[in-house]
Write a structure and sequence with these properties.
Helix content is about 35%, strand content about 25%. The strands form six sheets. The protein has a six-stranded mixed sheet with strand order 6-9-10-3-11-12, with helices on both faces. A six-stranded mixed sheet has the order 18-21-22-15-23-24, sandwiched between helices. It is globular. The two termini are about 35 Å apart. The relative contact order is 0.11.
Length: about 500
Protein backbone atom coordinates (compact mmCIF):
# COMPACT_ATOMS: atom_id res chain seq x y z
CA UNK A 1 0.00 0.00 0.00
CA UNK A 2 1.14 3.53 -0.76
CA UNK A 3 0.53 6.96 0.67
CA UNK A 4 -2.83 8.34 1.75
CA UNK A 5 -4.74 9.64 -1.28
CA UNK A 6 -8.13 10.34 0.30
CA UNK A 7 -9.31 11.67 3.64
CA UNK A 8 -12.91 12.29 4.69
CA UNK A 9 -13.16 14.20 7.97
CA UNK A 10 -16.16 14.77 10.27
CA UNK A 11 -18.78 14.00 7.62
CA UNK A 12 -22.38 14.65 8.73
CA UNK A 13 -25.52 14.07 6.66
CA UNK A 14 -29.23 14.26 7.42
CA UNK A 15 -32.37 13.41 5.47
CA UNK A 16 -35.71 15.00 6.41
CA UNK A 17 -34.42 15.91 9.84
CA UNK A 18 -32.97 12.45 10.58
CA UNK A 19 -29.20 12.38 10.93
CA UNK A 20 -27.70 9.34 9.21
CA UNK A 21 -23.98 10.21 9.43
CA UNK A 22 -22.41 11.55 12.63
CA UNK A 23 -18.89 13.04 12.26
CA UNK A 24 -17.59 10.06 10.30
CA UNK A 25 -13.89 9.86 9.35
CA UNK A 26 -12.53 7.66 6.56
CA UNK A 27 -9.24 7.46 4.67
CA UNK A 28 -7.86 5.50 1.72
CA UNK A 29 -4.34 4.68 0.58
CA UNK A 30 -2.99 4.12 -2.92
CA UNK A 31 -3.10 0.48 -3.99
CA UNK A 32 -5.32 -0.78 -1.16
CA UNK A 33 -8.75 -2.36 -0.96
CA UNK A 34 -10.51 -0.85 2.03
CA UNK A 35 -13.65 -2.70 3.18
CA UNK A 36 -16.54 -0.57 4.42
CA UNK A 37 -18.92 -2.69 6.48
CA UNK A 38 -21.95 -2.40 8.72
CA UNK A 39 -25.60 -3.34 8.99
CA UNK A 40 -28.25 -2.11 6.57
CA UNK A 41 -28.86 1.51 7.49
CA UNK A 42 -25.41 1.92 9.08
CA UNK A 43 -24.54 4.68 6.59
CA UNK A 44 -22.08 2.87 4.30
CA UNK A 45 -23.69 3.74 0.97
CA UNK A 46 -24.60 7.24 2.17
CA UNK A 47 -20.98 7.97 3.10
CA UNK A 48 -19.74 6.75 -0.26
CA UNK A 49 -22.44 8.64 -2.15
CA UNK A 50 -21.19 11.78 -0.42
CA UNK A 51 -17.71 10.93 -1.70
CA UNK A 52 -19.00 10.16 -5.20
CA UNK A 53 -20.93 13.44 -5.43
CA UNK A 54 -24.43 11.96 -5.24
CA UNK A 55 -25.14 13.73 -1.93
CA UNK A 56 -23.86 17.02 -0.54
CA UNK A 57 -22.81 16.63 3.13
CA UNK A 58 -24.19 18.91 5.82
CA UNK A 59 -20.67 19.41 7.15
CA UNK A 60 -17.18 17.97 6.95
CA UNK A 61 -14.33 18.00 4.43
CA UNK A 62 -12.93 15.71 1.74
CA UNK A 63 -9.28 15.88 0.68
CA UNK A 64 -8.11 14.04 -2.44
CA UNK A 65 -4.49 13.84 -3.54
CA UNK A 66 -3.58 16.38 -0.86
CA UNK A 67 -6.15 18.95 -2.01
CA UNK A 68 -9.40 19.82 -0.25
CA UNK A 69 -12.23 19.29 -2.76
CA UNK A 70 -14.86 22.03 -3.20
CA UNK A 71 -18.05 20.09 -2.40
CA UNK A 72 -20.75 20.68 -5.02
CA UNK A 73 -22.76 17.47 -4.71
CA UNK A 74 -22.49 16.39 -8.36
CA UNK A 75 -21.23 13.07 -9.72
CA UNK A 76 -19.62 14.81 -12.70
CA UNK A 77 -17.41 16.96 -10.45
CA UNK A 78 -16.35 13.92 -8.43
CA UNK A 79 -15.48 12.04 -11.62
CA UNK A 80 -13.44 14.97 -12.92
CA UNK A 81 -11.51 14.84 -9.64
CA UNK A 82 -10.76 11.13 -10.17
CA UNK A 83 -13.40 9.56 -7.91
CA UNK A 84 -15.80 6.99 -9.40
CA UNK A 85 -18.44 4.65 -7.96
CA UNK A 86 -19.65 1.33 -9.38
CA UNK A 87 -23.17 1.14 -7.97
CA UNK A 88 -24.97 -2.05 -6.97
CA UNK A 89 -27.58 -1.22 -9.61
CA UNK A 90 -25.31 -0.84 -12.65
CA UNK A 91 -25.51 2.42 -14.62
CA UNK A 92 -25.24 0.80 -18.04
CA UNK A 93 -27.32 2.11 -20.94
CA UNK A 94 -28.35 -1.25 -22.40
CA UNK A 95 -29.34 -0.01 -25.87
CA UNK A 96 -25.92 1.57 -26.52
CA UNK A 97 -22.69 -0.13 -27.54
CA UNK A 98 -19.82 -0.93 -25.17
CA UNK A 99 -17.79 1.94 -26.65
CA UNK A 100 -20.65 4.41 -26.23
CA UNK A 101 -21.09 3.35 -22.61
CA UNK A 102 -17.39 3.82 -21.84
CA UNK A 103 -17.42 7.40 -23.15
CA UNK A 104 -20.96 8.47 -22.25
CA UNK A 105 -20.93 12.20 -21.32
CA UNK A 106 -17.13 12.23 -21.87
CA UNK A 107 -16.86 11.78 -25.63
CA UNK A 108 -13.73 12.82 -27.50
CA UNK A 109 -14.69 15.61 -29.90
CA UNK A 110 -12.71 16.94 -32.87
CA UNK A 111 -14.02 20.14 -34.45
CA UNK A 112 -17.48 19.55 -33.03
CA UNK A 113 -17.69 15.92 -34.26
CA UNK A 114 -17.30 12.73 -32.23
CA UNK A 115 -13.87 11.24 -32.91
CA UNK A 116 -14.76 7.53 -32.83
CA UNK A 117 -11.29 6.49 -33.97
CA UNK A 118 -9.67 8.29 -31.04
CA UNK A 119 -12.23 6.83 -28.63
CA UNK A 120 -11.54 3.29 -29.85
CA UNK A 121 -7.80 3.84 -29.43
CA UNK A 122 -8.25 5.20 -25.89
CA UNK A 123 -10.64 2.37 -24.94
CA UNK A 124 -8.10 -0.22 -26.11
CA UNK A 125 -5.37 1.46 -24.07
CA UNK A 126 -7.47 1.38 -20.89
CA UNK A 127 -8.54 -2.24 -21.45
CA UNK A 128 -4.94 -3.30 -22.03
CA UNK A 129 -3.91 -1.65 -18.76
CA UNK A 130 -6.22 -3.86 -16.70
CA UNK A 131 -6.23 -7.00 -18.83
CA UNK A 132 -9.80 -7.01 -20.16
CA UNK A 133 -11.05 -7.31 -23.71
CA UNK A 134 -14.52 -6.31 -24.95
CA UNK A 135 -16.20 -6.22 -28.33
CA UNK A 136 -16.58 -2.44 -28.44
CA UNK A 137 -19.44 -2.70 -30.93
CA UNK A 138 -21.50 -5.16 -28.89
CA UNK A 139 -24.81 -3.98 -27.41
CA UNK A 140 -24.09 -3.55 -23.70
CA UNK A 141 -27.50 -4.87 -22.60
CA UNK A 142 -26.81 -8.24 -24.28
CA UNK A 143 -23.72 -8.92 -22.17
CA UNK A 144 -23.49 -10.75 -18.80
CA UNK A 145 -23.76 -8.71 -15.61
CA UNK A 146 -20.09 -9.31 -14.84
CA UNK A 147 -19.06 -7.86 -18.22
CA UNK A 148 -21.33 -4.85 -17.70
CA UNK A 149 -19.56 -4.29 -14.40
CA UNK A 150 -16.17 -4.41 -16.13
CA UNK A 151 -17.44 -1.82 -18.62
CA UNK A 152 -18.30 0.50 -15.72
CA UNK A 153 -14.83 0.01 -14.26
CA UNK A 154 -13.27 0.74 -17.66
CA UNK A 155 -15.38 3.91 -17.86
CA UNK A 156 -14.00 4.97 -14.46
CA UNK A 157 -10.40 4.31 -15.49
CA UNK A 158 -10.94 6.21 -18.72
CA UNK A 159 -11.51 9.24 -16.49
CA UNK A 160 -8.13 8.56 -14.81
CA UNK A 161 -9.85 7.70 -11.53
CA UNK A 162 -7.50 6.67 -8.76
CA UNK A 163 -10.37 6.11 -6.30
CA UNK A 164 -13.05 3.53 -7.18
CA UNK A 165 -15.96 2.60 -4.91
CA UNK A 166 -17.56 -0.85 -5.29
CA UNK A 167 -21.04 -1.19 -3.74
CA UNK A 168 -21.95 -4.89 -3.25
CA UNK A 169 -20.16 -5.79 -6.51
CA UNK A 170 -20.61 -9.58 -6.28
CA UNK A 171 -24.29 -9.67 -5.26
CA UNK A 172 -25.37 -10.74 -8.77
CA UNK A 173 -22.22 -12.57 -9.90
CA UNK A 174 -21.50 -16.27 -10.17
CA UNK A 175 -18.43 -17.77 -8.50
CA UNK A 176 -16.52 -17.70 -11.80
CA UNK A 177 -17.51 -14.07 -12.49
CA UNK A 178 -16.45 -13.12 -8.98
CA UNK A 179 -13.01 -14.61 -9.62
CA UNK A 180 -12.72 -12.44 -12.76
CA UNK A 181 -13.65 -9.34 -10.76
CA UNK A 182 -11.11 -10.15 -8.05
CA UNK A 183 -8.40 -10.59 -10.70
CA UNK A 184 -9.25 -7.15 -12.07
CA UNK A 185 -9.12 -5.66 -8.58
CA UNK A 186 -5.63 -7.17 -8.28
CA UNK A 187 -4.58 -5.37 -11.48
CA UNK A 188 -5.96 -2.10 -10.14
CA UNK A 189 -4.01 -2.52 -6.89
CA UNK A 190 -0.79 -2.90 -8.89
CA UNK A 191 -1.63 0.35 -10.70
CA UNK A 192 -1.96 2.17 -7.38
CA UNK A 193 -5.72 2.63 -7.52
CA UNK A 194 -7.36 2.90 -4.10
CA UNK A 195 -10.63 0.96 -3.79
CA UNK A 196 -13.48 1.06 -1.29
CA UNK A 197 -15.31 -2.26 -1.07
CA UNK A 198 -18.83 -2.35 0.42
CA UNK A 199 -20.11 -5.86 1.13
CA UNK A 200 -21.95 -8.07 3.62
CA UNK A 201 -19.83 -11.09 2.70
CA UNK A 202 -17.11 -11.49 5.30
CA UNK A 203 -15.32 -14.23 3.35
CA UNK A 204 -14.65 -11.74 0.52
CA UNK A 205 -13.31 -9.16 2.94
CA UNK A 206 -10.68 -11.56 4.28
CA UNK A 207 -9.84 -12.67 0.75
CA UNK A 208 -9.13 -9.34 -0.96
CA UNK A 209 -9.21 -6.44 1.52
CA UNK A 210 -6.32 -4.77 3.35
CA UNK A 211 -8.24 -2.74 5.93
CA UNK A 212 -11.74 -2.60 7.41
CA UNK A 213 -13.78 0.37 8.53
CA UNK A 214 -16.99 -0.49 10.39
CA UNK A 215 -20.01 1.80 10.80
CA UNK A 216 -23.01 1.33 13.07
CA UNK A 217 -26.01 3.68 13.16
CA UNK A 218 -24.11 6.29 11.16
CA UNK A 219 -21.11 6.35 13.50
CA UNK A 220 -17.56 5.03 13.18
CA UNK A 221 -17.02 1.89 15.30
CA UNK A 222 -13.42 1.12 14.29
CA UNK A 223 -10.95 1.20 11.42
CA UNK A 224 -8.11 -1.33 11.45
CA UNK A 225 -5.84 -3.53 9.35
CA UNK A 226 -7.41 -6.82 8.25
CA UNK A 227 -4.79 -8.78 10.23
CA UNK A 228 -6.18 -7.33 13.48
CA UNK A 229 -9.86 -8.16 12.82
CA UNK A 230 -11.43 -11.57 13.31
CA UNK A 231 -15.02 -12.73 12.86
CA UNK A 232 -15.89 -12.28 16.52
CA UNK A 233 -14.73 -8.66 16.65
CA UNK A 234 -16.42 -7.84 13.35
CA UNK A 235 -19.75 -9.42 14.23
CA UNK A 236 -19.74 -7.87 17.68
CA UNK A 237 -19.16 -4.47 16.10
CA UNK A 238 -21.92 -4.93 13.54
CA UNK A 239 -24.63 -6.05 15.96
CA UNK A 240 -23.40 -4.00 18.93
CA UNK A 241 -23.18 -7.05 21.17
CA UNK A 242 -20.84 -9.89 22.02
CA UNK A 243 -23.70 -12.31 21.31
CA UNK A 244 -23.01 -13.12 17.66
CA UNK A 245 -24.81 -16.41 17.24
CA UNK A 246 -27.02 -15.79 14.20
CA UNK A 247 -28.85 -19.09 14.09
CA UNK A 248 -31.67 -19.96 16.52
CA UNK A 249 -32.15 -23.46 17.84
CA UNK A 250 -33.56 -25.69 15.14
CA UNK A 251 -37.06 -27.04 15.39
CA UNK A 252 -37.03 -30.85 15.44
CA UNK A 253 -40.30 -32.51 14.57
CA UNK A 254 -40.35 -34.83 11.57
CA UNK A 255 -43.95 -35.29 10.49
CA UNK A 256 -45.74 -36.47 7.35
CA UNK A 257 -44.55 -35.70 3.83
CA UNK A 258 -46.26 -32.48 2.71
CA UNK A 259 -44.50 -32.00 -0.64
CA UNK A 260 -42.78 -34.40 -3.01
CA UNK A 261 -41.05 -34.18 -6.37
CA UNK A 262 -40.83 -37.45 -8.31
CA UNK A 263 -38.25 -37.65 -11.10
CA UNK A 264 -39.01 -34.12 -12.30
CA UNK A 265 -37.42 -32.74 -15.45
CA UNK A 266 -37.64 -29.37 -17.18
CA UNK A 267 -35.64 -29.67 -20.38
CA UNK A 268 -32.54 -27.52 -20.45
CA UNK A 269 -32.89 -26.57 -16.78
CA UNK A 270 -32.72 -29.73 -14.62
CA UNK A 271 -33.17 -33.48 -15.05
CA UNK A 272 -34.63 -36.39 -13.06
CA UNK A 273 -34.69 -34.75 -9.61
CA UNK A 274 -36.55 -36.32 -6.68
CA UNK A 275 -36.97 -35.09 -3.10
CA UNK A 276 -39.43 -34.87 -0.20
CA UNK A 277 -40.30 -32.12 2.28
CA UNK A 278 -41.74 -33.22 5.60
CA UNK A 279 -43.82 -31.29 8.08
CA UNK A 280 -41.60 -29.80 10.78
CA UNK A 281 -38.38 -29.54 8.78
CA UNK A 282 -36.56 -26.99 6.62
CA UNK A 283 -35.20 -28.40 3.36
CA UNK A 284 -32.18 -26.67 1.85
CA UNK A 285 -30.84 -26.60 -1.70
CA UNK A 286 -27.11 -26.02 -2.27
CA UNK A 287 -25.24 -25.56 -5.53
CA UNK A 288 -23.46 -23.08 -7.76
CA UNK A 289 -25.31 -20.56 -9.91
CA UNK A 290 -26.97 -22.40 -12.79
CA UNK A 291 -27.13 -25.71 -10.92
CA UNK A 292 -30.93 -25.81 -11.28
CA UNK A 293 -32.00 -24.85 -7.76
CA UNK A 294 -33.91 -21.68 -8.66
CA UNK A 295 -35.38 -23.35 -11.71
CA UNK A 296 -36.93 -26.11 -9.59
CA UNK A 297 -38.48 -23.52 -7.26
CA UNK A 298 -39.84 -21.53 -10.19
CA UNK A 299 -41.34 -24.70 -11.69
CA UNK A 300 -43.20 -25.36 -8.44
CA UNK A 301 -44.38 -21.73 -8.57
CA UNK A 302 -45.60 -22.07 -12.16
CA UNK A 303 -42.93 -20.04 -13.97
CA UNK A 304 -41.44 -23.00 -15.90
CA UNK A 305 -43.05 -26.02 -17.51
CA UNK A 306 -42.66 -29.49 -16.03
CA UNK A 307 -41.77 -31.84 -18.91
CA UNK A 308 -41.45 -35.12 -17.00
CA UNK A 309 -42.24 -36.45 -13.52
CA UNK A 310 -44.82 -35.16 -11.06
CA UNK A 311 -45.20 -32.86 -8.08
CA UNK A 312 -47.35 -33.83 -5.09
CA UNK A 313 -48.60 -31.29 -2.55
CA UNK A 314 -50.47 -32.46 0.54
CA UNK A 315 -50.92 -35.88 -1.07
CA UNK A 316 -52.45 -34.59 -4.30
CA UNK A 317 -50.93 -34.03 -7.71
CA UNK A 318 -49.92 -30.40 -8.10
CA UNK A 319 -50.97 -28.84 -11.40
CA UNK A 320 -49.78 -25.25 -11.77
CA UNK A 321 -49.63 -23.53 -15.15
CA UNK A 322 -48.67 -20.08 -13.85
CA UNK A 323 -47.93 -18.26 -10.57
CA UNK A 324 -51.63 -17.37 -10.11
CA UNK A 325 -52.39 -21.11 -9.92
CA UNK A 326 -49.59 -21.54 -7.37
CA UNK A 327 -50.84 -18.70 -5.15
CA UNK A 328 -54.38 -20.10 -5.23
CA UNK A 329 -53.06 -23.47 -4.04
CA UNK A 330 -51.16 -21.94 -1.12
CA UNK A 331 -47.63 -21.61 -2.53
CA UNK A 332 -45.46 -18.51 -2.11
CA UNK A 333 -42.08 -17.67 -3.67
CA UNK A 334 -39.57 -15.11 -2.36
CA UNK A 335 -37.32 -14.33 -5.34
CA UNK A 336 -33.52 -14.14 -5.22
CA UNK A 337 -33.80 -10.75 -7.02
CA UNK A 338 -36.26 -8.69 -5.02
CA UNK A 339 -35.64 -5.48 -7.00
CA UNK A 340 -36.69 -7.12 -10.29
CA UNK A 341 -39.16 -9.81 -9.17
CA UNK A 342 -40.04 -9.09 -5.56
CA UNK A 343 -41.12 -5.49 -5.05
CA UNK A 344 -42.83 -2.54 -6.71
CA UNK A 345 -40.18 -0.03 -5.63
CA UNK A 346 -42.17 3.21 -5.96
CA UNK A 347 -45.34 1.83 -4.36
CA UNK A 348 -46.08 1.81 -0.61
CA UNK A 349 -45.54 -1.10 1.76
CA UNK A 350 -49.30 -1.65 1.97
CA UNK A 351 -49.68 -2.32 -1.75
CA UNK A 352 -46.56 -4.48 -1.94
CA UNK A 353 -47.72 -6.61 0.97
CA UNK A 354 -51.35 -7.04 -0.04
CA UNK A 355 -50.91 -7.50 -3.80
CA UNK A 356 -51.02 -11.35 -3.83
CA UNK A 357 -54.12 -11.23 -1.58
CA UNK A 358 -56.29 -9.19 -3.94
CA UNK A 359 -58.42 -12.26 -4.74
CA UNK A 360 -59.48 -12.56 -1.10
CA UNK A 361 -59.44 -8.86 -0.22
CA UNK A 362 -61.54 -7.88 -3.22
CA UNK A 363 -65.26 -7.27 -3.03
CA UNK A 364 -66.57 -6.76 -6.53
CA UNK A 365 -64.55 -3.88 -7.98
CA UNK A 366 -63.50 -2.66 -4.53
CA UNK A 367 -60.95 -3.62 -1.89
CA UNK A 368 -61.91 -4.26 1.72
CA UNK A 369 -59.68 -1.42 2.95
CA UNK A 370 -60.10 -2.05 6.66
CA UNK A 371 -59.30 -5.75 6.30
CA UNK A 372 -56.27 -4.91 4.14
CA UNK A 373 -54.91 -2.33 6.59
CA UNK A 374 -55.47 -4.59 9.60
CA UNK A 375 -53.58 -7.43 7.92
CA UNK A 376 -50.69 -5.20 6.86
CA UNK A 377 -50.35 -3.58 10.29
CA UNK A 378 -50.34 -6.95 12.07
CA UNK A 379 -47.51 -8.21 9.88
CA UNK A 380 -45.51 -4.98 10.24
CA UNK A 381 -45.73 -5.46 14.02
CA UNK A 382 -45.11 -9.21 14.13
CA UNK A 383 -42.14 -9.09 11.72
CA UNK A 384 -40.77 -5.91 13.36
CA UNK A 385 -40.54 -4.06 10.05
CA UNK A 386 -38.87 -0.69 10.65
CA UNK A 387 -41.00 1.86 8.83
CA UNK A 388 -42.72 5.21 9.29
CA UNK A 389 -45.99 3.53 8.32
CA UNK A 390 -47.69 1.31 5.77
CA UNK A 391 -47.82 4.13 3.19
CA UNK A 392 -44.03 4.54 3.12
CA UNK A 393 -42.54 3.64 -0.28
CA UNK A 394 -40.79 0.30 -0.06
CA UNK A 395 -37.72 1.64 -1.91
CA UNK A 396 -37.01 3.81 1.15
CA UNK A 397 -36.65 0.80 3.47
CA UNK A 398 -33.36 -0.95 4.22
CA UNK A 399 -32.64 -4.19 2.36
CA UNK A 400 -33.54 -6.30 5.38
CA UNK A 401 -36.90 -4.60 5.84
CA UNK A 402 -37.68 -4.87 2.12
CA UNK A 403 -37.02 -8.59 2.41
CA UNK A 404 -39.37 -8.83 5.37
CA UNK A 405 -42.12 -7.27 3.25
CA UNK A 406 -41.40 -9.85 0.50
CA UNK A 407 -41.94 -12.60 3.07
CA UNK A 408 -44.93 -10.90 4.70
CA UNK A 409 -46.95 -10.76 1.48
CA UNK A 410 -47.01 -14.56 1.37
CA UNK A 411 -47.90 -14.85 5.05
CA UNK A 412 -50.84 -12.55 4.28
CA UNK A 413 -52.10 -15.13 1.75
CA UNK A 414 -51.81 -17.89 4.39
CA UNK A 415 -49.38 -19.83 2.20
CA UNK A 416 -48.79 -23.46 3.19
CA UNK A 417 -45.55 -23.86 1.22
CA UNK A 418 -42.86 -21.18 1.03
CA UNK A 419 -39.99 -21.24 -1.44
CA UNK A 420 -37.26 -18.91 -0.16
CA UNK A 421 -34.62 -18.21 -2.83
CA UNK A 422 -31.51 -16.53 -1.37
CA UNK A 423 -33.66 -15.11 1.47
CA UNK A 424 -30.85 -13.08 3.08
CA UNK A 425 -29.09 -11.72 -0.03
CA UNK A 426 -28.10 -8.13 0.69
CA UNK A 427 -29.34 -8.41 4.29
CA UNK A 428 -27.05 -7.43 7.17
CA UNK A 429 -25.96 -9.68 10.03
CA UNK A 430 -28.42 -8.30 12.58
CA UNK A 431 -31.40 -8.59 10.22
CA UNK A 432 -30.32 -12.10 9.24
CA UNK A 433 -30.71 -13.32 12.81
CA UNK A 434 -34.30 -11.99 12.77
CA UNK A 435 -34.93 -13.75 9.48
CA UNK A 436 -33.64 -17.09 10.68
CA UNK A 437 -35.89 -16.92 13.73
CA UNK A 438 -38.88 -16.05 11.53
CA UNK A 439 -38.22 -19.06 9.33
CA UNK A 440 -37.97 -21.41 12.33
CA UNK A 441 -41.26 -19.98 13.65
CA UNK A 442 -42.96 -20.70 10.31
CA UNK A 443 -42.00 -24.37 10.51
CA UNK A 444 -43.54 -24.59 13.98
CA UNK A 445 -46.82 -23.38 12.38
CA UNK A 446 -46.73 -26.39 10.00
CA UNK A 447 -45.77 -24.26 6.98
CA UNK A 448 -43.51 -26.08 4.54
CA UNK A 449 -40.22 -24.24 3.92
CA UNK A 450 -37.64 -24.81 1.18
CA UNK A 451 -34.53 -22.61 1.32
CA UNK A 452 -32.16 -22.02 -1.61
CA UNK A 453 -28.86 -20.39 -0.66
CA UNK A 454 -25.36 -19.87 -2.06
CA UNK A 455 -23.98 -19.68 1.49
CA UNK A 456 -23.13 -23.11 2.85
CA UNK A 457 -22.95 -21.88 6.46
CA UNK A 458 -26.48 -20.49 6.16
CA UNK A 459 -27.86 -23.81 4.94
CA UNK A 460 -26.03 -25.76 7.64
CA UNK A 461 -27.16 -23.40 10.40
CA UNK A 462 -30.78 -23.30 9.29
CA UNK A 463 -31.80 -26.52 7.54
CA UNK A 464 -32.61 -30.05 8.74
CA UNK A 465 -31.73 -31.63 5.39
CA UNK A 466 -29.73 -30.32 2.43
CA UNK A 467 -29.88 -31.39 -1.22
CA UNK A 468 -26.86 -30.61 -3.41
CA UNK A 469 -27.36 -29.77 -7.10
CA UNK A 470 -24.79 -29.61 -9.89
CA UNK A 471 -25.41 -28.88 -13.57
CA UNK A 472 -29.13 -29.57 -13.32
CA UNK A 473 -28.84 -32.85 -11.41
CA UNK A 474 -29.21 -33.89 -7.79
CA UNK A 475 -25.78 -35.14 -6.72
CA UNK A 476 -26.22 -35.55 -2.97
CA UNK A 477 -28.48 -35.31 0.08
CA UNK A 478 -27.37 -34.84 3.70
CA UNK A 479 -28.93 -34.75 7.13
CA UNK A 480 -27.96 -31.95 9.52
CA UNK A 481 -25.89 -34.26 11.75
CA UNK A 482 -23.55 -35.33 8.92
CA UNK A 483 -19.88 -34.96 9.89
CA UNK A 484 -17.71 -32.54 7.84
CA UNK A 485 -20.89 -31.43 6.11
CA UNK A 486 -19.57 -28.22 4.55
CA UNK A 487 -16.55 -29.99 3.07
CA UNK A 488 -18.72 -32.76 1.61
CA UNK A 489 -21.18 -30.26 0.13
CA UNK A 490 -18.41 -28.23 -1.53
CA UNK A 491 -16.81 -31.31 -3.05
CA UNK A 492 -20.10 -32.29 -4.67
CA UNK A 493 -20.87 -28.73 -5.81
CA UNK A 494 -17.43 -28.28 -7.37
CA UNK A 495 -17.08 -31.91 -8.52
CA UNK A 496 -13.67 -32.37 -6.89
Amino acid sequence: MGKEILKMANICKSFAGTQVLHDVNFDLRAGEVHALMGANGAGKSTLMKVLAGVYLPDSGTIAHNGRVIPLKGTVHDAQLDGIAMVFQELNILPHLSVLENIFIANEIVNKGIYDWKAMRKRAREVMDEVGVDFDLDARAGDLPVATQQMIEITRALNLNSNVIIFDEPTSSLTMQETDILFALIGHLKEKGVGMVYITHRMSEVYQICDRITLLRDGRLVFSDDIANVDNQRLLAGIVGSENTNQFPEKYHHEGEVIFEAKNVTSKGLYEDVSFQLKDGEILGFAGLAGAGRTEIAKTIFGCYNLDEGELLFEGKKLDVKNPVDAVRQGIGYVSEDRKVEGILAVRPIRENMSLPSMMTLGKGLHIRNNQEKDGVNKLIDSLKIKTTGMEQKIENLSGGNQQKVCLAKWLMTNSKLLLLDEPTRGVDVGARADFYQLIQDLVKQHIGVIVISSEEDELIGLCNRIIVMREGKKVGEFNEDEKNLKEKMLKLMLDI
